[in-house]
Write a structure and sequence with these properties.
heterodimer; A: 145 residues; alpha+beta; Thiol Ester Dehydrase, Chain A; B: 158 residues; 4 helices
C-alpha cells in the first residue's frame, strides 16, 4: 500500500532489507565510494591501536550504513511521491566482515510548514545480535500534490 | 569522475603531504576538483549498497517520473567527496575515523553533471583525548544549483 502524508502517524515503522557484510562487500564499497582508507583494507594496519580503540581487523565504512539508511528512505519515499531531504547519522559500533546489518526507522512526528509537509524519522542500523551500529534522524518532504 | 588509472587508491602515498590536525585551519577552503559524474559511477555506487531502483538504471522508466530522466541516489555525495578532492586532501589520511555526518538534499545529481565542491574545515576540538575536525561541504552542478550540503565529524589520526 502506498503511504500518504495523511495516513502516516507517529510510531509507524519502516524497514530496509538485510545487508550481508563481507570483505568483498567492503572492497566493493571502496571502489564505489573511492574511499580506500586502510581501515577498510589492511588487516595488519588494523592490528594497531587508534588512541584507546583497537578494532582487531578491517571494519566497514561508516558511510556504508549511511548509504543503506538512505536507500531505505528513498525506497519508502519514491512510491509516495515524497522526497528524501535530510539524513544525520552517528556511528555507534564498528561493523565487521561476517556481520549482517539491517536498517529500520520509526516515524517520530509530522509537521506542516508554510509551503510543505514533513515527516521526521528516527533511524537505526542493527547487527545480527540486535546491537545498534548506527543511529540517526531523517526528514522526508511530502509536497502538496 | 577520474578514471581508475587517474585515481590514486593507495592512501599511504602522499600521506606526508596531507595536513595533520595541528595544521588544519578551520574556515580555510579545501582544494577541490570539478568532476563529471558518470552513469557507470552511479551504477557502481548503487550496487555497493544493493540499490537496484530503476530511477538509477532504467532511462525509459526514469523519463516517466517527476525527475524526467536518470538521477543519482541522494547519498552519491559519499563518492563525490573523494572524486572532487585531490590526493593530498586530509580526508584521505589513513586512520581517519568517521564519527558521523549530516546531509541536506536539494536537487538530485544526474549522469553527465559536472560537479563542483566547496569545502572547508569548520571547527576542530579535542574530546576525551581524541582530535576532532568538523568539515562542511556543498556540492553544485554545472548550473550552479546546490545538489546537497553536509557536515561531518572525523577523528584525526595522531
Amino acid at each position: 500500500m502506498t503511504v500518504t502524508f495523511e495516513s502516516l502517524k507517529a510510531g509507524d515503522p519502516i524497514e530496509g532489507p538485510d545487508f550481508a557484510v563481507s570483505r568483498e562487500s567492503i572492497r566493493l564499497f571502496c571502489d564505489a565510494s573511492l574511499d580506500y582508507n586502510p581501515l577498510h583494507l589492511d588487516d595488519d594496519y588494523m592490528k594497531g591501536n587508534f588512541g584507546k580503540t583497537n578494532f582487531g581487523g578491517v571494519i566497514m565504512h561508516g558511510m556504508n550504513n549511511f548509504g543503506l539508511i538512505s536507500r531505505m528512505i528513498t525506497d519508502w519515499a519514491y512510491p509516495a511521491g515524497a522526497i528524501h531531504r535530510r539524513l544525520e547519522t552517528r556511528w555507534v559500533k564498528p561493523v565487521r566482515p561476517g556481520d549482517t546489518i539491517r536498517p529500520s526507522g520509526i516515524i517520530k512526528a509530522k509537521q506542516v510548514t508554510a509551503k510543505s509537509r514533513w515527516v521526521l524519522l528516527d533511524v537505526v542500523v542493527r547487527n545480527q545480535n540486535d546491537e545498534r551500529v548506527a543511529t540517526g534522524e531523517a526528514m522526508v518532504e511530502f509536497p502538496e500534490a | 569522475m577520474p578514471g581508475a588509472q587517474a585515481f590514486e587508491t593507495d592512501f599511504w602515498k602522499d600521506a606526508n603531504l596531507r595536513k595533520v590536525w595541528d595544521e588544519i585551519v578551520p574556515g580555510e577552503p579545501r582544494k577541490t576538483i570539478p568532476c563529471t559524474l558518470t552513469r557507470e559511477a552511479i551504477e557502481l555506487y548503487c550496487r555497493s549498497v544493493g540499490d537496484t531502483h530503476p530511477l538509477y538504471f532504467d532511462e525509459a522508466y526514469a523519463r516517466t517520473t517527476r525527475y524526467g530522466g536518470l538521477i543519482a541516489p541522494p547519498s552519491i555525495h559519499i563518492m563525490l567527496m573523494f572524486a572532487c578532492t585531490p590526493a593530498d586532501d586530509w580526508m584521505r589520511s589513513p586512520g581517519t575515523v568517521n564519527a558521523g555526518q549530516s546531509w541536506s538534499y536539494n536537487i538530485p545529481a544526474r549522469p553527465g553533471d559536472v560537479i563542483t565542491l566547496q569545502a572547508r574545515a569548520l571547527d576542530k576540538f579535542i574530546k576525551r583525548e581524541r582530535l576532532f575536525v568538523v568539515h562542511d561541504n556543498v556540492f553544485f552542478n554545472q548550473n550552479g544549483d546546490v545538489i546537497c550540503s553536509g557536515r561531518g565529524w572525523t577523528i584525526r589520526p595522531k
